[in-house]
Design a protein that fits this description.
The complex is a heterodimer of chains A (211) and B (684). With 211 residues, chain A is of the alpha/beta class. In chain A, 39% of the residues lie in helices and 10% in strands. Chain B is of the alpha/beta class. Chain B folds into four domains: 2-100, Ubiquitin-like (UB roll), CATH 3.10.20; 102-212, Alpha-Beta Plaits; 285-351 and 489-620, Rossmann fold (3-Layer(aba) Sandwich), CATH 3.40.50.740; 365-483 and 627-638, Dimethylsulfoxide Reductase, domain 2 (3-Layer(aba) Sandwich). In chain B, 25% of the residues lie in helices and 17% in strands. The chains are: A alpha/beta (211), B alpha/beta (684). Chains A and B meet through helix 4 of A and strand 7 and strand 8 of B.
């Protein structure tokens, strides 16, 4: 609780975000406006440079006619909502098993060196945090920077990305090994054709276990 | 629909709409639980109530497993449930082990020790050593107000408190933030809680995470002497248990009574007990040279006897307070009659509600439990949340089912449920405004404050007229309900403790020059300007500070007495401790005065008093019983000349926590009031 920071300015949705918020609310029946809370919090977080202040939570509680604590529960439950300031580029580094086995510790040390402690904003406006599984284990280790995934990273790749960001250059999202999405890295491994897949499945005696 | 099932091999039959835990409860099989509570919604997160269901792949949580989900066996055998197998025992043991992983071993310094669900159940399902080598979790304590102390490391996340505040209390203040291992129960940014029922989360908490702040480190449950009694803080007479140690009341707990308070009590009821020990009058006082000085009983009574003899009987009056028992009022009335005066009143707030129109005209006819079968309720000039929080919770309970429409005439307040606002003056009580066509059982709830207005009886007449038109006065339903704020008022009206003449009403007597000697029987809400006043009561408050003779009496925890609640239900208090110092039972004081003036009331012991009361007023015979009530002389009521005036309704309770002399003596109630008014409480 104590690490939730206060900022004394009133929050109000911008005109376009207001219509976006109303669009989300209209997805739900009347009297159930509260169901739109995750979308609304996300829109608000986007508008406020990536983090939520108590003022925003109060505003949204009034906006959706929910008790403040209910909004707070949602905002603290999901790691996608930040309750402390983040940098212009916010790194979410996955440290769960597949990423860790593929070398996320290396990335972690690099982030400590380059950016500093977790949950703090560096002088050049970067921040990072270790998160649980981002759901792209086939491309481990991965780092999410703002809205995009950067996959198959090693320390050198990540260092280059950070340097590029600092220099204000564009960075490329997706895999950093030479492959399309999660296609095999070994070029000799070919993808099965549809016919081959069918042939294999016919050869199976029973579906499921033991096949 | 009923369903037959086998439980541990024996056959039982149940209603199909029960859950498994409810069915097991009916068969007296004990199922351990932490999160399940029969007055709250089902959470199913503690996993302690696991049982084995034949055919299910794994143990099921009996709290949210419906009987209608049970399936017969392949050959049509009865569904079978097992609660005493090794599998069940091991499953519960496993759940318990996880609960204990992060629970601190601080039972010796925990206030819950001795009445802790976790402690009790660990005796049966705990394992004797820990397999957990990692560091235990520690959580910061939350400051959620002056009543509830938090030790959040002990929390097992059953969320009973969260469900209570959002469902029963209706304030949605507590919540669980963060998730998984980091989950914490707190209010939003650690604001203090505002509910008048928040004390109940202390009882609900199965561990020592939420304990009573005022009771902190005061006593252990096994040291306490438990006395069943009733509460006198408001008109409904919640059933309480007074826990005392030696000569002191240590705490007050609710007692289950489905008809009145279910198992909740308000914060004023629960935390008043520190006011029972402060500002007490423990010896008689008389006023000499403008100052009150402590004297012996003999001297005080001698002085009083002289005063009574000196004064013309017609110039003697008596006012009974809001927390006196029926016996005391009965004796006071007898004493006044012996003296030769008929000037007595039990309505110190200046109410004009009398008993001339039958008992139905001044009680809560539909009964509190009856709220649960009401379709509509019209609240007139009342704020039930302040006047009777427990009754308000009952209205909310009914409202949550979606079957109750609430209408309000009077001041707007947050009542914890939605209402249709009709207006702020009596003119808004109009059947045109209210659509009651589909409602069968309608409650017309009149606040006490209605009768502080000059046109109070006209409003009553109008309400009865509306009730008759809408068919809410029938053989099986009487919808006219007067919500009394004070514990002794209905008994006072039943006993006819009322002046013969309107000009002798309590407030008139207090400022009248004609009354030279005024008895204040625990009456602290009147400003007296009489020549002499005599205060018989327990607390040094307004009444005693202006009195010429102060006679120390007993509080409601220190005496036996009959009280009539707002429904007209007779209940009795029982003595938990003795009055402090030289203080005596009020009935003894009154009998002693009568002896001194040689007009003795012949009562030797308390039973004599009660028998005599019951002989004259048989309504005080059956405890926990409501007599059949009727209206009388309604034609006289409706033919009153007075007209409704357009004044807006106003509620007199400005501070819920400070409504009587005991509450005003209580430090805890003072802190609550400060928090409510936004004044910061300094520690230490």
């Amino acid at each position: 609780m104590s690490n939730i920071k206060k900022e004394n300015n009133d929050f109000c949705f911008s005109k376009e975000n207001l219509s976006l918020a109303e669009y989300e609310i209209n997805k739900y029946p009347k009297g159930r406006e509260g169901s739109a809370i995750i979308s609304i919090l996300w829109i608000a977080q986007k508008q406020n440079k990536g983090w939520l202040t108590p003022e925003i939570i109060n505003y949204i509680a009034k906006f959706l006619d929910l008790p403040q604590i209910r909004v707070m529960e949602i905002a603290t439950f999901y790691t996608m909502f930040n309750l402390i300031p983040v940098g212009a580029h916010h790194f979410q580094m996955c440290g769960t098993t597949p990423c860790m086995l593929s070398g996320s510790d290396e990335l972690k040390n690099l982030l400590y060196e380059e950016i500093g402690e977790q949950n703090s904003v560096s002088k050049d406006n970067l921040s990072w945090v270790e998160v649980e599984c981002l759901g792209a284990c086939c491309n481990a280790p991965i780092v999410q920077i703002n809205d995009d995934y950067y996959e198959d990273l090693n320390a050198t790749d990540l260092k280059n990305i950070i340097d590029d960001l600092r220099a204000g250059k564009e960075i490329r999202s997706g895999s950093y090994k030479d492959r399309l999405t999660s296609a095999p890295i070994d070029k000799n491994i070919k993808m099965l054709t549809q016919d081959e897949i069918e042939k294999i499945s016919k050869a199976r005696k029973k579906p499921g276990l033991g096949a | 629909m009923s369903i037959k099932i086998l439980i541990n091999g024996s056959e039982f039959e149940f209603e199909e709409n029960l859950t498994l835990i409810q069915a097991l409860e009916q068969t007296d099989i004990e199922v351990p639980r932490f999160c399940y509570h029969d007055k709250l919604s089902i959470a199913g997160n503690c996993r302690m109530c696991l049982v084995e269901v034949k055919g299910a792949p794994k143990p099921v949580a009996s709290c949210h497993f419906s009987l209608s989900d049970l399936r017969p066996g392949p050959n049509g055998e009865l569904p079978e449930v097992l609660t005493n197998t090794d599998q069940v025992h091991n499953a519960r043991k496993g759940a318990m082990e996880f609960l204990l992983v992060n629970h601190p071993l601080d039972c010796p310094i925990c206030d819950q020790g001795g009445e802790c669900d976790l402690q009790d159940q660990a005796l049966h399902y705990g394992i004797n050593k820990s397999r957990y080598k990692e560091n235990k979790r520690a959580v910061d304590n939350k400051n959620i107000g002056p009543l509830v102390k938090t030790t959040m490391t002990r929390c097992i996340h059953c969320t009973r408190c969260v469900r209570f505040t959002s469902e029963v209390a209706g304030t949605e203040e507590l919540g669980a933030i963060h998730r998984g291992e980091n989950m914490e129960i707190t209010t939003y940014l650690e604001k203090g809680m505002s509910s008048e029922l928040q004390g109940n989360i202390i009882d609900l908490c199965p561990v020592g995470a939420l304990t009573s702040k005022p009771y902190e480190y005061h006593a252990r449950p096994w040291e306490l002497r438990k006395t069943e009694s009733i509460d006198v803080m408001d008109g409904i007479g919640s059933n309480i248990r007074i826990d005392s140690k030696g000569s002191e009341v240590m705490r007050i707990m609710p007692r289950y009574n489905e008809e009145i308070n279910e198992e909740w009590i308000s914060d004023k009821t629960r935390f008043i007990w520190d006011g029972l020990k402060t500002q007490r009058i423990d010896t008689p006082y008389i006023r000499e040279n403008g100052k009150l000085i402590a004297v012996s009983w003999d001297r005080a009574l001698t002085l009083l006897t002289e005063l009574i003899k000196k004064t013309d009987p017609s110039k003697i009056g008596a006012i009974a307070g809001d927390m006196v028992s029926a016996e005391e009022m009965f004796l006071m009335k007898k004493l006044m009659e012996k003296i030769g005066s008929n000037k007595y009143d039990c309505r110190q707030d200046g109410s004009i509600l009398g008993n001339q129109y039958g008992r139905s005209s001044y009680i809560f006819n539909p009964t509190i439990a009856g709220i649960e079968s009401a379709d509509a309720i019209v609240i007139i000039g009342s704020n039930p949340r302040m006047e009777s929080p427990v009754l308000n919770a009952r209205i909310r309970k009914r409202w949550l089912t979606g079957l109750l429409n609430v209408y309000l005439v009077g001041e707007k307040h947050d009542l914890t449920y939605d209402y249709t606002y009709l207006g702020d003056s009596p003119k808004s009580i109009d059947l045109k405004n209210i659509s009651l066509n589909n409602s069968k059982n309608i409650i017309w709830l009149l606040g006490d404050d209605v009768f502080l207005r000059d046109d109070g009886m006209v409003i009553l007449s109008k309400v009865i007229e509306c009730a008759e038109k809408t068919g809410s006065i029938r053989e099986d339903w009487n919808g006219v309900a007067v919500l009394h704020k004070y514990a002794s008022r209905v008994a006072g009206l039943d006993l006819d403790f009322l002046p013969r003449d309107e000009k002798d009403s309590a407030q008139q007597m207090a400022i009248s020059k004609e009354i030279e000697l005024l008895f204040l029987l625990d009456a602290d809400e009147v400003n007296t300007k009489n020549k002499h006043t005599v205060y018989i009561g327990s607390h040094g408050d307004k009444g005693a500070s202006g009195a010429d003779i102060v006679l120390p009496g007993a509080c409601y925890t220190e005496k036996n007495g009959l009280y009539m609640n707002t429904e007209g239900r007779l209940q009795e208090t029982n003595r938990a401790v003795f009055p402090p110092g030289d203080a005596r039972d009020n009935w003894k004081i009154i009998v002693e005065i009568s002896k001194r003036i040689k007009k003795s009331l012949n009562y030797i012991n308390f039973e004599d008093v009660r028998d005599s009361l019951r002989k004259e007023y048989p309504i005080f015979t059956n405890i926990n019983h409501i007599e059949k009530n009727t209206f009388q002389c309604l034609d006289r009521l409706s033919s009153q000349k007075q007209k409704l005036n357009g004044d807006v309704f106003s509620n007199t309770i400005t501070d819920y926590y400070l409504t009587n002399s005991i509450a005003r003596s209580s430090k805890v109630m003072g802190e609550c009031s400060m928090q409510k008014n936004g004044i910061e409480i300094k520690n230490g």
